[in-house]
Every structure is written in structure tokens, then in C-alpha cells.
Amino acid sequence: MYTQHFYKTSKLIVLCTLITVASCNQKKQTVEKPKSEEKINVLLQEWTGPYNGTPAFDKMNIDDVKPALEKGMELHLLDIDAITTSQESPTFENTIIPLEKAGSALKRVFTYFGILSNNMSSPEFREIQKEMAPKIASFRSKVSQNEELFRRIKTVYDNSQKAPLDPDQQRVVHLIYESFTMNGAALDNEKKKRYAQIDKELSALYTNFSNNILADEEGYTTYLTKEQLGGLSESLIKAYAKAAEDRGHKDSYAVTNTRSSMDPFLTYSTERGLREKVWKNYYSRGDNNDEKDNKDNIAKILKLRRERVVLLGHDNYASWRLQNRMAKNPDNAMKLMNAVWPAAISRVKEEVSDMQKIADDNGDNIRIEPWDYRYYAEKVRKKKYDLDSDEVKEYLQLDKLREAMFYVAGELFNYSFNPIEEGKVSVFHEDVKVWEVTNRVSGEHIGLWYLDPFAREGKRSGAWANTYRSHTTFDGKKTVLGSNNSNFVKPAPGEPVLVSWDDATTFFHEFGHALHFFSSEVRYPTLNGGVRDYTEFQSQLLERWLSTNEVINTYLLHYKTGEPMPKALVDKIKKAATFNQGFATTEYLASALMDMKFHLADPTDIDIDTFEKEALTALKMPKELVMRHRTPHFGHVFSGEGYATAYYGYMWADVLTSDAAEAFAESPGGFYDKELANKLVKYLFAPRNAIDPAEAYRKFRGRDAQIEALMRDRGFSVSK
User: Fold this and answer.
1) 197, 219, 241 — which closes off a domain?
2) pLDDT of residue 416
3) Alpha helices, H only, 362-485
4) Predicted model pTM
5) Is 2 a domain residue?
6) 186: exposed, middle or buried (C-beta count within 10 Å: 0-12, 13-18, 19+)?
7) Same structural domain, 190 and 339
8) Secondary structure of residue 447 in the 3-state scheme
9) Model confidence over 86-129: pLDDT tens digits?
10) Are residues 202 and 254 in the same domain?
11) Within this chain, do residues 142 and 225 fall inside the same structural domain, yes or no?
């Protein structure tokens, strides 16, 4: 999941949602210096030290958050005033350039804010979030609805249509103008006022939604006794024991309410009653009919989103949102999903039949329920492919996987990763480690990579990538500061971190986002943004290198013997590559379809629970599984707007991924073909959003991507 914080002017490329806040681009900026007697808030201070300065994470204090945000917003508005009070005719140099530089202090504050929100949350911080959410929304509206600022932007835009600028400058002007118009800059005053009020209300709802999820993740832990550990591996038992001890339950074992803890328990535990309990805890987050229930929040969000886009002349939120995406409109997105859905649910029927037969043969006397799916799927995997996931995990050590990612980055991007000496760069938790990224050919310094791998209280679930500072050259070249964040269960001291094949794939996926950050060659901050149904493509593509022979033979080593994964096991993994694709595709697509259906529906009197049930029934959703993200905890969509009506984008990007992977598979050098790797970096990674994504892909592939590649990838039949 890509959660780069595109904090720019307005809500603008401002996917500045209070939870997925990741960092912002750092640029030099002249601001009013505080009076000498004033204490400088550390969150506002320019970053110091090596590598063009780095965040002072070790000095974060939540007492500084509110005043830093307030001062940062004040300083940003002064930057905007300097643009709008200029007596010079608007030009790229006197309007767009200072706009790109504006708000450097506030961007630094949001870097810390993102860490405190995503990685180090606390009840005290959540109260500050609630208080500041509407204030931040009001600030954004002051920028996005600034009439004089928009007049100057429009003048530059109009002039660029008559006398084009450099291609990247033309793209910057287009993106900024488009963002302002999409976010209400051209509305009349009365509509602007209502638009701003809606944004304010939504910001509070987004914060409440995400905090409710986090509270339910922290509030529901399943404790096990020694007699309830049947089926669990030794390493998993030790990890659960540590989780319990960390929570003050010595001599117990804790399954926490996160995917990384829940998933292996449902896969291996022989305790069906406990599997049901763990499953219900996880999939009921935000849906327990208590003070943390999110259904009312969702209904309000949908109504406000619809009202806001109606002000802009759109019938529904989906049509407004997709106008500048690769899909262009909801019909195209739905067409893709509906093309895949029948094959996915058909495969689920086959998978359930295989599982039910095993259960019947074992005399288990059960019908497959959602909390049984992973457990019996694992038994089918063993029977059908003689593939034991526990055996596979013995070759998937987290440290070795990290080395494998570094190897791939070296072969494709010429990058080297060297560990930073502890204490040289500040971190926000002892688990976080930092590496310097350099070009291994030229020796050029590229940036720093932060890794925060383990789950802990106060850290949101899942895996994601952030940038603390992005690459730009228009104001002096900057060191890129990027991070990957995961939720692996922390092992007992001295024990290796062994992960599943799916988790290893996700680890590579998020690293793909980081490589996208580091490979940027754009001049202007706005161009480090992205098109949501394209930004997952690069990271999804990088997943494919996990299964290359070079990685398998060198880095997938047994955690005890150090021996590489045997060919027989590799063959089983590759043979089973499309195993359980019914489950994987259906749980994802159900979420993506519901995201779109919610935003196409009339939200006037919507009942969230009823709508979800009726829509899934109409889709013939198999009862043996549920959406990957049930609506009451669908943070991608309802904790902000980054993925709202855009969750389909993972599949859109997967079409590109499958097609591009076939290009590598067919090339003379395979996945390490130097010529194709150079094209990959040149056209698909380095430009970021400097050129249209569809054009970029055609430059790489020589044609548009084809959906048939996706169907082949998933083992589904391809219509002729």
C-alpha cells in the first residue's frame, strides 16, 4: 500500500488524510523567523545533520504537535500571501515555483504527524488528531479556495495552452490547475463556503473512523493456554508467547487482532472454536454496535462526499474521482472487475469442494465456514501439491529476504544498500533500522531507507511505504528519505523471523514503492505524485522477482541448515502458483466492487449493513469467505480519500503487472535482462507522474497492456 503524503497546496494532491499521512517533500523556504525569545518547536525546525538533514524522530513530543501544526499552517498561508500579493503578471516562475516551495515547515510537521499517527499512536495523540482534523481541513480550504491564487494559476495554465512550456513544466501546471478545479476553486462563494464546511466535517469523520479501527485492534486479543496450541509451529508459538508477555500475560499466548497474527492462526490451528473467535474479532472491527462502531460514520461520509461532488456538477463521487485516473470513468473500472469476477467465484466453488471433501474424509462433520477456509485450504495444498506452507516458511527468513531485495535493486537499478551506524540518524523506535542508498556504479548518494518491520501497540495494521522527503532538483537536489513499514510478529530473542510466502511477496511489494521513490528523476515536487490506479503497478511488478532462480538459490536458505531451498520444493511452489486464486481474487474484488457500488449509490437513506449484504448477495458472493476489507474497517476507503473508488486500482495495476511480467519472461535475459531493466527504470519508475501513465507504459511495452495476461497469471480461462 502506497501512502505517500502528497501534501501540497489545497486538498490538492493533498491526499493529506489524517491517517495515511506520510511525509511530504522537503524544500528550502524563507519564512518569518521566530522572535529570539521564542522557543523553536522541534517539529518545525529544519532538519539538520548529514544527508541534507534528517527528521529528529528521537525528539518528538506529542505536546509539540498542536502548536507546530498551528504555526506551520500560519507560515504556509504567509507563503501563499506572498504569491497572491505579487504585482507581477502571473508566470511559471513567480507563481508555480513559489507554490511548489510553499509550506516547508508544515511539511516537516506532517512527517512527524504521520509517524505518530501510523507507527506510534496513543490515546493522547488521538485526542489531538480529533481536535486538529477540522482545523487542518479549514486550512486546506483557505488554500484551495483562494480566489487570487487560483486566478494566477489559471492565467499560467491558459498561457501555457498558447505557448507551451517545457514538457515537465507543462505537466506540473496541468496537474495543479486540474487539482484546484476538481476541488472547488471555480465555485461561487456560496458553494465554496459549503464545500469547505463539508471538508471540515469529513476530516473529523475520517479521523474517528481510523481511530475506531485502531481501538478495536488493540481491544480484542485472544489468549491461549498451552493446551490450545494444536497445529501451531514452534516459531509461531514463541511469537505468540512474547506477544502475551508484552501485554502482561506471562505463561499465556496472545493472538492479536491484526492480519499478521490472525492469518497464520486461522491457517494452522486445530482449535476450530478459537479459529471462529479470532476470525470474528478481526472481521468485526468497527462493527460491534458499540461506541467504536463505524457504520454511522460511513453513512455520513457517503452523504457528504455525494453532496460535495454535486456542487461540482457531478452525479456521483465515483465519476468525479475517476476523471483523471487511467480508468477515466466508473464504467471502465466496473468492466474490468466484472470481467474477472465470474471466473473468481467459479474457482471458489472448486476450492470449497476440494476442502469439503477433505473435511468429510477426515470425519470432521462440518460444513466449510469462513474461519475454516485457510485451514482446509492448507490441507488441500498439501494433498494436491504436496506443499507444506510451514516447510516453505523455514526458508523465508526476514533478514535474508531483505538481502534479496537489495540484490534485485542492485541488478535492476544499480543501487547499493549499506547499513547506517546506529545513532548517526535518529529513529522513532528501537526496531527501526536505516540504510544508505547509493548508485553502485557512480557512487552517487541517492537517499536513506528506513525499515520498521514489527507489529506493536499503537501501530496500524498492514504494510505500507512512506516518503519523508522526495527527490526534486528545481531547488537543489535533495536526499530521498523513504521507509517501509510492516507488521511481522516480533520473534522471541534469538529466534529468526520466519514469514509466509504471501508475507514475503508483500515485503517485496512495499519495497517496490521505495524503489519508485528512490528512482525519481523529476524536477518538481508535484510530479512525485501519482495516478492511483497506476501507483501500485511498480510495486506489484517487483513481487515477481521473489520467485526468480537468482533469489531462490542465494537467499531462500533454511534457517537452521543454511541450505538453499531444494529444487523439488521450488517446483512445488511454482506448480501451486495459481492455488487458492479463487479466494485471493474474490476477497479482494468483493472489496473493490463494494467500494465502487457504495459511491455510485444514492446515499440519502442508506443502511450500511443492509446495503453491503444485498449487494454481495446480488453478486453471488460465496458464503465461505468475506471481503478482504469489510466495510466498517475499510480504511483504504473511509479513513481518507486516497483509495476511495480507487481500490479497483490494484487490479487495474495488476493487468499492467501481468503484461509487463510476460515481457520479462519472454526477453533473452529473463527477469534480469539489462536492456529491458533499463527501459523499466527509464519509463516506468524514473518519470513518476511527469508523463501520462498510459503513454509511459506504451513506451516500455510498445503497446497497451492486455487483460488476457492477468487471466493467464491467475490460472483463469481466457475467452477467445
Assistant:
1) 219
2) 98
3) 373-385, 389-393, 398-413
4) 0.86
5) yes
6) middle
7) no
8) strand
9) 999 999 999 999 999 999 999 999 999 999 999 999 999 999 99
10) no
11) no
